Amino acid sequence: xxxxxxxxxxxxxxxxxxxxxxxxxxxxxxxxxxxxxxxxxxxxxxxxxxxxxxxxxxxxxxxxxxxxxxxxxxxxxxxxxxxxxxxxxxxxxxxxxxxxxxxxxxxxxxxxxxxxxxxxxxxxxxxxxxxxxxxxxxxxxxxxxxxxxxxxxxxxxxxxxxxxxxxxxxxxxxxxxxxxxxxxxxxxxxxxxxxxxxxxxxxxxxxxxxxxxxxxxxxxxxxxxxxxxxxxxxxxxxxxxxxxxxxxxxxxxxxxxxxxxxxxxxxxxxxxxxxxxxxxxxxxxxxxxxxxxxxxxxxxxxxxxxxxxxxxxxxxxxxxxxxxxxxxxxxxxxxxxxxxxxxxxxxxxxxxxxxxxxxxxxxxxxxxxxxxxxxxxxxxxxxxxxxxxxxxxxxxxxxxxxxxxxxxxxxxxxxxxxxxxxxxxxxxxxxxxxxxxxxxxxxxxxxxxxxxxxxxxxxxxxxxxxxxxxxxxxxxxxxxxxxxxxxxxxxxxxxxxxxxxxxxxxxxxxxxxxxxxxxxxxxxxxxxxxxxxxxxxxxxxxxxxxxxxxxxxxxxxxxxxxxxxxxxxxxxxxxxxxxxxxxxxxxxxxxxxxxxxxxxxxxxxxxxxxxxxxxxxxxxxxxxxxxxxxxxxxxxxxxxxxxxxxxxxxxxxxxxxxxxxxxxxxxxxxxxxxxxxxxxxxxxxxxxxxxxxxxxxxxxxxxxxxxxxxxxxxxxxxxxxxxxxxxxxxxxxxxxxxxxxxxxxxxxxxxxxxxxxxxxxxxxxxxxxxxxxxxxxxxxxxxxxxxxxxxxxxxxxxxxxxxxxxx
Length: 807
Description:
By secondary structure, this protein is of the alpha/beta class.
């Protein structure tokens, strides 16, 4: 009897993009990172691409890819974000799948996922088909091969969903053992056996026979071990993790066994710090084992076709014992907030279902005469989502257009297809998973609904919003001041609604603080400056002109005139209007110029009102990232002034503070805020500079200790990480530069003195790559300069936590 192990990770985060900007904006809750995608990437997705194998002393013995040795799926929306923001991590994941095929007899470790994590049993047939089709095409686009398996969001399953998977060529999926109802051998002679309560044998694949005559294989994961990974902190020790897995083998079974577990991939590093290293160690244990083979589902299925068939509970899911109640009703599943209920889930789903169904005739009527087959075009629209280049878009129109489309017709088609895309995004499962309708995840899906309504408005006079809100208003919030779903829509979702006019205002205001090229990209918009005039007088500035704004997704274009009056600091007003040709435009420019030249600011405001109306824009209207950037510039001088003032105070009373400290007398409480601000600021500046002064840093840390103030450890660790990353990247480009090597070593020497852990992932990766690529070259040279480099390089390796590399 052979034994095999398969560890599956479901790597997924809900889409967080602003539906209008098509980009993730700044999220303060993820600080010091820009957003949660970035934070989780650094804590989980990236570490698993290059995971550390540690020796008994906690030193790095090797760096390996977990993805190439495990089974995994990634949410397509997460991979899309990674490709744009962190392409090296995206490519490392894809490359790991290529390497896995050599390890697992041609079967890849990656499997596909339904596109945007929609709960499949609650979807209509058409959405099920598109979700599977999009998930498969996204997988093929990235991994360059067919996917044998597919992850069902939340393992939500019913027979129709399995039919859709099987019809589109998927060979297997993964479910919880609690979803199994009964099994029997495929010999056709034996009776069904009840396996409710997770009593199914999870070490072999099963066959589901479908009404169409198709079949699909199902693997059931080992629930107790998966539970231990998710909730019992088994990932604190990689050896313990491996041992826990081996206990699931049963020598009493008479068949080859696959012990498999499936958990959220974020367990390996995000939920549990160091989980990536525990996984790496466990995988290595099985690689070295003479008795247990490391495998994946596709390989095991090819070698062990199902001998039993199974019927599954439907609808059912892995994270709701009430079927799929968590995504449609107050079933009792929640995140544990006492006194709250989830009655809001039902009206939320009802409102979305109503909206989805009302969008169908709008889509069909709007595309009549434009598309040969609108629903086939929707399926194939994934090709455009994956590649929005003009050439690919033209190819799409050629294949699906009912005739050669005009530019205006092309815009209509894309708007209709985007309406359908957002009508599916609004069903992303996370919107129901947690406790409160005003939570971030639920607001996100309501924003998708708002975007779909906005897109539909150009094709129908039907008031979609009022009917939607009538039902959504029945969804009562657990937070009294948030009232209900209507309030959430109007106060949290709808304010994010974007128009080309708002984009024009953003560009006009931000152009005072940032130099843009003649044609600039602003998130999902392109802005072309047709005319621009700038006047300055002291701290005051006047910018005016006209621009063309194009939404690169729908191809819709519009021209605007603008004026921005900046009177210093945050005092700024902006006017936007649709472009007026000829004398109207020239007159506006001349009148504004004359008023500015005589510094008549009241007249400038009156003129802005007259030419642009009373709807003014300000720094408040900037998109979040640019708003912080602009405010950072405005407040830079203010911060420096506060720092210098505080520094005068702390320096003046420094000797008294030390004297009190020597006598163990409590320090002056009034000085504590100033001291804390100054020391944290001085340390951060050290780390943000190109060169760190180690003696100055040690002096500041000693001052922190003696004064007893609190360090902003998270911000400082992030700043030091950035410093090490920048230096390492420079060193990677010029590895023979001994001065850079010395700077890196000097900076790394501070690590033991820092009061918090620093993420050295990138610096360690670069060191390891240079060790493999450059060190042998230096060793061959065998001259004094090379020997000096090797000595410094080995010292740096020890400082970065590597097991000493012998030379």
